[in-house]
Write a structure and sequence with these properties.
eight-stranded mixed sheet, globular, Methyltransferase FkbM domain-containing protein, EGF_Rcpt_Signaling_Reg, FkbM_mtfrase, Rossmann fold, four-stranded mixed sheet
Length: 296
């Protein structure tokens, strides 16, 4: 299997140009939506994703120096959820060099990111996915050494457009922290809909993005998509793209939902390594670094 990607990094000048000129080809976009492609490997969709001149939506890794102050320890080392993920990712993956990650719900590419340390200090590459336009622009400015795409992840096996709710910026002087709760509009509670704002976003199966990048092996898949995680994982072709570790947030909906969610992910070939109330670490049962005998 191919770990990582075969796409070549472009020159730095091209990367910077694309940060500003990478606008969608609306004719191709509307045609894809009209046709309702149901095949994640459809050549029209993959071409649209890959080719910048054709309206492609995948940005190349930056060749510029990082625009971050540290690797998150200074700001978030005592934040409970960050510590939970960091503990398991460090234990199981920090010795690995040149792995590949997917981080969905990447915000600005810095706040609470558990992939940045792997990228900076273990030479990992990856894919950062963030649908919120203002956060995505901040993400690009961080000069991450990973591919980046401004989409929401689809809960269905095809491309579609939906409304995305931008949560109010409650955290003073830190818009990224305030943006944490942003999500697809149909996941927003009625009381919350009185605040915030809406934008239209495209949702795409994450498998299409990975196939467009020629990625068939993902070491770490971080899924923080505020309510869409069930559909995202249930429709993911784990038989086609190998994933070793899942780090997933799912809002607490009671014990029955928790059991059902764990059962669904287990059916994909994973075991539950550990969990908090709303956060889960799953490991592929035949992963080389760990074989789970029984789930907790």
């Amino acid at each position: 299997m191919t770990r990582g990607t075969k796409l070549q990094q472009q020159q730095d000048s091209t990367h910077n140009k694309n940060h500003h000129a990478h606008t969608p080809n609306h004719d191709m976009e509307e045609e894809l939506l009209k046709q309702g492609w149901t095949n994640t490997t459809d050549p029209h969709l993959l071409k649209w994703l890959k080719e910048a001149d054709g309206g492609g939506r995948v940005f190349q890794p930056s060749l510029r120096p990082y625009n971050v102050t540290d690797h998150n320890y200074g700001h978030f080392k005592d934040f409970g959820v960050f510590k939970f993920y960091e503990k398991h990712i460090t234990k199981l993956l920090s010795s690995k060099v040149s792995g590949f990650f997917v981080e969905a719900g990447a915000l600005d590419g810095y706040i609470l990111s558990n992939t940045l340390i792997l990228e900076r200090f273990r030479a990992w590459s990856g894919l950062l996915v963030e649908p919120r336009p203002d956060m995505f622009q901040q993400l690009l400015q961080k000069q991450r050494k990973a591919f980046a795409a401004r989409f929401c992840l689809a809960e269905k096996p095809y491309l579609y457009k939906t409304k995305f709710w931008l949560s109010p910026d409650f955290v003073k002087d830190n818009i990224a922290f305030g943006a944490v709760g942003s999500r697809v509009y149909d996941k927003v509670q009625a009381a919350e809909r009185e605040s915030g704002s809406l934008v239209n976003v495209l949702c795409i199966p994450v498998a299409s993005l990975l196939i467009a990048l020629d990625v068939t092996y993902v070491d770490l898949f971080v899924v923080d998509v505020e309510g869409s995680e069930w559909g995202v994982l249930d429709n993911f072709p784990f038989h086609q793209i190998t994933v070793d570790m899942l780090a997933v947030e799912r809002k607490d909906k009671g014990q029955e939902d928790r059991k059902a969610f764990i059962k669904m992910v287990r059916s994909k070939g994973f075991g539950l390594l550990d969990s908090l109330k709303e956060d889960y670490i799953f490991i592929r049962k035949s992963a080389e670094f760990l074989v789970l005998e029984d789930d907790p």
